[in-house]
Write a structure and sequence with these properties.
CATH class: Alpha Beta
Radius of gyration: 17 Å
Shape: globular
Helix content: 25-40%
Largest sheet: 7 strands, mixed
Number of domains: 1
Strand content: 25-35%
CATH architecture: 4-Layer Sandwich
CATH topology: Metallo-beta-lactamase, Chain A
Length: 194
């Protein structure tokens, strides 16, 4: 499963590049102003006319997020937007979500943030701030800590690093890996002599 992430261009992330790298993904985090979504998606759809996004998962509901979600529904009519409102949502009222052949569940992380989780992964929004501080509540943090040590936890990072892979270790705390840095390392790694 791939994840599509949009970020505010002011954070330093090249929105179009992020979209292009994940142009055939199944899920999308929507967490940027409408204008950035419109510009980036129109460029992407022009280059990838067969792009079919299945779900847009809003990670934290705000006025500009709502505008972005509405714009997405125009550009991608088949897109299902998963958008619980701040403090007022019922996971049982939503249609079942499926990605990669697995059913997804929703869980509240507190203070308006929520996560979407499957058998081996959990998708969160910017529930950690730029300094790594938790912005949800105690119950949400407890839920994440009870996940299997093998669960891959994807979170948006507000410090322009894009999507982070946070793998929770039951004994050693939390290990954070920057996927962009890993991809860069793989491309620059020299081949071993035969």
């Amino acid at each position: 499963m791939q994840i599509l992430s949009w970020h505010d261009p002011a954070s330093g992330t090249d929105v179009y590049r992020v979209l292009w790298d994940a142009s055939r993904c199944e899920a999308a985090f929507v967490d940027i102003p409408e204008s950035a979504v419109e510009e980036a998606l129109e460029r992407l759809l022009g280059a990838e006319p067969k792009l079919r996004l299945r779900y847009a998962i809003t990670t934290h509901w705000r006025a500009d997020t709502e505008a972005a979600a509405e714009r997405l529904s125009v550009l991608c009519p088949a897109l299902q937007i998963v958008a619980p409102h701040w403090g007022d949502w019922d996971a049982s009222a939503l249609a079942p979500l499926r990605l990669g052949g697995h059913s997804l569940q929703l869980t509240a992380l507190g203070n308006g943030y929520f996560g979407v989780y499957g058998p081996t992964y959990c998708l969160c929004g910017e529930v950690w701030d730029g300094r790594g501080r938790w912005r949800g509540d105690a119950l949400g943090q407890r839920f994440l800590r009870r996940l299997s040590p093998h669960t891959r936890l994807f979170a948006l990072d507000s410090t322009s690093q894009g999507i982070l892979w946070r793998e929770w270790q039951s004994l050693h705390g939390q290990q954070v890996v920057n996927l962009a840095a890993i991809r860069s390392l793989r491309h620059t790694r020299k081949k071993r002599p035969a």
